[in-house]
Design goal:
Blueprint lengths: L3 E5 L4 H17 L2 E8 L16 H19 L6 E7 L3 H12 L3 E6 L13 H5 L6 E6 L9 E5 L4 H17 L2 E7 L13 H25 L4 E6 L3 H8 L6 E9 L9 H9 L4 E6 L8 H9 L1
Parallel strand pairs: 1-2, 1-4, 2-3, 4-5, 6-7, 6-9, 7-8, 9-10
Antiparallel strand pairs: 5-10
Helix pairs in contact: 7-8
Length: 305
């Protein structure tokens, strides 16, 4: 099976960055890349200021004009990239529908840097694409570092969502020859709070548990030939993961507490902070979504090597 990666593309800088990085990823995994441009049209329910519905000829003409403009935008893209011009008034809805219909493995989107306010503008297309996605979601910020995938970081704490993320990262690392960096954070107690007696020992035990969880996962990966490092930090999870990706990380993979198509991919907190602020592209694996990112041919070739 050859996985399909769909990139929401509209010719802007963020969408070009998303397409560029997705192509890098696809070359290593054997996936096909499809650039999808969703263009606006009149709807059959459109009512003019004069109180009557737009005639079908006007609707057809607007649809044709939109398709021609969309095809003109997609035409200069490099060979080997699929092109889809999709009519709709809702970009996220149509991209989600396209991903479901095509059984896509990944939906990529560009995002705009907004400094300390975060990259995903509330209500923007990029943000809405992260809600209810039927497949893995790749977010590539316009100013993210783009290049060969040599180090893949994974936000990992041993829970089911992070195990899904680790499996995806392992498959990508196998294709690219990248090393893995397992990152965990221990949220500290708020300063100035009188803690109950014995809580220090409990806190230390939890920290030791996280270290053991990381080392157990890393040991299993090393026995399979991966180069792995671990890093645990006592800090708020979102900022801690972002800091660990500031140097030498080319892709960050994280799980999500969302429930696939029925719930949001990101429910706030650490996952949202990571996507907003990570200096590298971020791959989100929604809970409940089964994603095969690597083609069967690449898996077979790697197994035979």
């Amino acid at each position: 099976m050859v996985p399909e990666y769909i990139v929401g593309y509209d010719g802007t800088e963020p969408s070009r960055a998303a397409l560029e990085f997705t192509r890098v990823l696809a070359r290593q995994t054997g996936a096909e890349v499809v650039a999808a441009y969703v263009y606006a049209t009149l709807t059959s329910l459109y009512v003019s200021p004069f109180g009557f519905a737009a005639p079908s000829e006007l609707y057809a003409e607007a649809a044709q004009d939109g398709r021609v403009a969309a095809e003109r935008l997609l035409e200069p893209l490099p060979a080997g990239i699929g092109r889809r011009a999709v009519p709709s008034g809702s970009v996220p809805m149509e991209l989600h529908g396209l991903a479901r219909d095509d059984h896509a493995a990944l939906l990529a989107v560009g995002a705009t840097h907004r400094g300390t306010l975060g990259r995903l503008v509330p209500g923007s297309i990029a943000e809405r694409l992260l809600h209810g996605s039927p497949c893995a979601v790749l977010v590539v910020a316009q100013d993210a570092r783009l290049g060969p995938i040599e180090t893949i970081a994974v936000a990992y704490d041993g829970r089911r969502e992070s195990r899904h993320a680790l499996r995806a990262a392992e498959a990508l690392a196998l294709c690219s020859g990248a090393s893995l960096r397992l990152i965990a954070a221990i949220d500290p107690w708020p300063a100035g709070i009188d803690l109950p007696r014995g809580i220090d020992e409990l806190d230390e035990a939890f920290g030791n548990h996280i270290d053991d969880v990381l080392e157990h996962a890393a040991s299993g990966l090393r026995t399979r030939g991966f180069e792995v490092e671990t890093h645990a930090e006592r800090a708020a999870p979102g900022p801690a993961v972002v800091r660990c990706c500031e140097h030498g990380v080319d892709l960050l993979v994280t799980g999500s507490r969302g429930y696939g198509p029925l719930r949001t991919v990101l429910l706030g907190g650490a996952s949202r902070h990571i996507v907003d602020h990570a200096p590298c592209p971020v791959l989100v694996i929604p809970r409940g979504v089964s994603t095969t990112l690597v083609s069967d041919d690449v898996v077979a070739a790697l197994s035979a090597a």
